[in-house]
Amino acid sequence: MALVDLKFLGWDTPPIPSAAEWLLDNLGPDMSSRVVALPGSRAVRSLRLALLRGVQKRGATLLAPNIVTVGALTDLLVGGEGRVASGLVRRLCWERALDQATEQDRGCLAIHDAVQSRSSLAVQVRGLHADLVAAGMDVDQVLKTECIQTRPHEAVRWRAVGRLQQAYRKILASLDLVDPHDRRRLALAQQPGADLDVILVGIASQEPLRNAALVQSKGLVQHLVFAPESLRDLFDAEGCVLTDAWLQREHIVPEGKWSVVSDPKAQAERAMEIVAQSGVTQDSEVSIGIGDAEAVPELIAALAEDGIEARDAAGQSAARSMEGSLIKLLAAFFKDRDTRSLADLWRHPWMERSVEDEDPSFGGLLADLDSYLSNHLPHKIGASWLTDGHRSQILRNDHLQKALARTDELLLPLANAQGADAVCAALREVLSTLLGEQEFDQEAPAQRAQVMSLRQLGTILRDLEDLPAELSPGNSTHEVLQRVSDELSECMIAPAPLDANTPAVDLLGWLELLFDPAPLLVVTSVVEGAIPASSSPDSILPEALRRELGFENQEDRLARDLFTAEVLDHSRETHWITPRVAAQGDPFLPSRLMLRVSPSALPAQVRRWSDGGKITPTMGLVPPPPSACQRLGSASHPDVFSVTGFKTWLDAPYLYHLQRELELDQLSDRNRELTPSAFGSLVHKSLEVLGSDELRACADTKKICGALHEALADAARVSFGSDALPAVQLQVEQAAHRLENFAGIHAARVQAGWRVEQVEWAPKEGRSVPIAAPDGPALLRGRIDRIERNQDGRWALLDYKTGNSKKSPNGAHRAKNNGEIAGPWRDLQLPLYAHLARELIGGDVPELGYLWLGKDASETGLMLLKCDEVYLAEAYEKAGEIIREIRSGELPKPRDHYKPYSHMESFLIGQGLALTEDGEG
After folding, report:
1. pLDDT recorded at residue 283
2. Tell me, what DSSP letter sits at residue 297?
3. Which long-range contacts (CB under 8 A, 24 or more apart) does 699-704 make?
4. Beta strands 197-201; 66-69: pairing state
5. Contact 627, 280 (CB under 8 A)
6. What pTM was computed for the model?
């Protein structure tokens, strides 16, 4: 029976150098008879390197110990018999056991009685099984505990767990395989202890199975503890932290080492300030701890500005590689074959290249697809493509159809495959076609990650092909591809070795910081829920039950984190940074680690939090550089101006430049419903029927309603076909409701003597109308939604609006000045309509206004612009001034308090990625 000999090394130096020095001082260069265990693989590599450097300084040759992770240590100590099932096989066995379980048992295990996917529930029970074995318990023991016996509903749940566990073990046994956790437990009970001398290095957490194996060991067990001897009472007999003792201990951050900043961008800037002020000369002397992965982009950008490469020490998931992302997209495409999955697939560089290489005309494929999806919002990919008959749309659709045919040709092997073996073989064939004749060199830094990812993919495909038939992950292509994608997400691609000529800084997870040798640490995102990490909800083993059963729980993890924080503070220069808000503006709370002070010191510590980082800049992306608000290319001298363009210039001249001069448009394949603009266009198209001979003078509300509904149905059919997205179908119904409310407005106008003379009117033959400007003549073009004439000879020029709330055209066109609508101009649309229609209406001042089709009857109606000849003259004069400004080539800043209609507009004009209200159609 082995006894653990505790060696307290203090915490004045980083743990890895301290441990390496102790091993060399006490064991000499020949350590080959010892096993050294550390918490993680990175710590293993760091200690091995520190030992090599240490013996070199002493002029000796290292006979290295067997350095392993603490997880591998248990296997060394207890051994075991039987073939261990791979991770893939174990996951599939749990899923098969769930398939065999009764509905009642599955219902007992689901979180909050919700229906979970088979795979997610399998992950949950697999983790529970590992926790039970690590704690040295089985389900029968749990059922006998007082906390379960006093809770009948929990007993029912645990009996279901027991039946599932038995089914899982039975399936493994039928395959002549064994679970590794079970093998350790059985070996510990049946075999004598190993005769190994073991040295534990900084193992802070208890694990009953490991402790039992150490106790049973016949060799010497020593534990190197990174704390002063005077704190022995804070550790148990095995050298692990005592939870209650550490929870009562204060954590006093050294003066000036805790920074509270506004947001992730300010956090990255503060991190770089700390590094610059420290005076370190080598990148290996600095590491940055990551509490929140969402803050990583800002940190990488800040480091890059100083010419420093940020290296994620954890590596990258193979699922994020080029082939990994393609397989995920293929799984979605073969499952749904809808427009979104097609858009995502075509955006993958390999697919885009392979489709476009077939035909040079495919160069605008993604733009054509975005245009089609934005205009028609189809749900599935049908046999025919929607069009309103324009030649450009017919050519676009022909382009898309050819690209889809080419895509189906490339993916034909996968489409015809059935079963795991066939799908794996087909996937190899498709990837070979997409990659072409390409050679890889693992030694080339640019290709290293892809070579490793392809090797991992090859291993996964072989494992799937070797599976027994009864464990098939599915028969369909999308099921097998999804399994391949899931397995890739479990694989990590280790970061490339550092280039001696390239400055680099490691980005480390919280649990890796303790064993990092860097003398300067910057710990970021020190916020509640990140450091310490919050636990995921578990319906079977909640925190309260974990504590009662003696399993590791949140309090144990907090105690371990408090110990880690103290070691970091004492062993090197450690800085802690806490942002007040996340990248999207969600508020953070400071980590409990920063508030573990005495009651008398707590108010001051809270004040440090409340007073720090109060200024919160615009959320999201940083504003573009000043050059972004200059014209792209030489300024032109335009002659023709659109009526609606003047508002864009008054709001944000740079947007006018992009939209009107460069003719750029914002397209997206992400829309799952009509945008406000598209909704307005649908309603406008339906309202054109009111200009027909039958309805222009009709006051029969019922007849008007019927005609509008029919026009809406026709417009929706042309634009969206018979398979519109559910949200679009709902919006069509909403449009019908608005049109019903408007039918009474139209009837009332007719009863008041008004008749619709024109709809969607423009000057004859599409001509433009001259308008005066200080720097020379200009032309005005536009289209008026509705022109009415009263029986008494008056004219009305009206614009349809579909916003949810009525807004007065007076405030929309001109701001107030001392209570009067005579302030700065915001829009010139309605006055310019009067100028545009002069040839039709003559020289009289017409009625100008908005016809609102709001969300309900109270928001539906006519709102007129208060104007006279003076008002119109001032508007025409302002239009001339704007024409001169546009021609000058200058781009003034956006008007004060302008709220863009989209995130991208906000970014382009330098306001960041702000949240804005929906626009109107």
Report:
1. 53
2. H
3. 699/747, 699/750, 699/751, 700/747, 701/743, 701/744, 701/747, 704/743, 704/746, 704/747
4. unpaired
5. no
6. 0.77
